[in-house]
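Mods, move this if it's the wrong board.
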Amino acid sequence: MQMKDIECIARDLMSNAGSSTEEFTTAKHLEHVRPMFQKAWSPCLAAFSVGLQDSDQIDLAHLCLTGISYSIRIACIFHTEVCY
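Not the wrong board. Structure tokens:
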């Protein structure tokens, strides 16, 4: 897939996400956050690592480091281990 195609698909998905009629619930309790974080952390770390290693773009490096920082923050707030 070309980057333009991916960009268009992502834009469409984000614009459609705001028009959903379903109720959104914010996860504030450990029993909600821990299983989601444990499943999402490894793929996120892989994506952030690839972005840092394979690109010389400052903006991309900043986004990857911000993602890692937010992940660490979530782990600290909810006392969740970050496994590698």
